[in-house]
Amino acid sequence: MPSSSPFGLCILKFSSWNNPDKLSTAIELIEQYTDKNADKIYKEFHKADILATWADISKAKRLLDWEPTVSQAEGISRSVEWAKENWEWVSTLTL
Questions:
Q1: Rounded CA gap, 67 and 64, in Å?
Q2: Sequence ranges of the domains in the chain
């Protein structure tokens, strides 16, 4: 596996979303799967913000012959279910 790191490491990004999507879409899915409504505060776009971003998964495809098999909705659903099943541990984490 080629690497530009002096430690022989490389960073790979994995995502089923190889296209940009609105943050509001992800929030809506989380709200749907948790049966909770987020307290959203909409503010004016800040000049230091970026308009769009998404994971470039081309390196993972090239090096590992990897293709995403889970949609954004399914990935968020699975993440929410995992958090619910592991809430006792998750709730101890500090951010």
A1: 9
A2: 14-37+51-95
